Amino acid sequence: MNQRLVIAGFSLFVVVVSIGCGMPSRYAESIIQDAKAQILSAQATDAQNLATESYEEAARMLADAESALHNGKTEEAYRLGRRANLAGKLAESISIAIKIEEEARNMEKRLASKMRAMEKAKHEFEQANMKLGRFNSTPEN
Asked: pTM for the full model?
């Protein structure tokens, strides 16, 4: 009876230790997968060209996180994976902001062009109105 109790207790201990040891690894793997997805999302916004520094930093940290995980350094892998994820978000945000700024500049140019066209049309209208006024004010023969 005591022997069974000792074996059951030891088995429970082994299960708890193995679950406990596997947790950080799973967390690190999960955050690394999140970082990979975030970097792919950043790529979709052309971050590799528009936010090169942040994008490359994210990719470098991801590679370091994967290396750390491969070498059994799960805490470091988790930390680097989180940083890679955040750097990927930053790269994506910068890329989106650059695109929005570009679109705003284009809209300003189109608006300025339309304003010039409107001023020209207004001037032509005033000229035509003046001619019409002169035409209406001339005595009939």
From this structure: 0.68
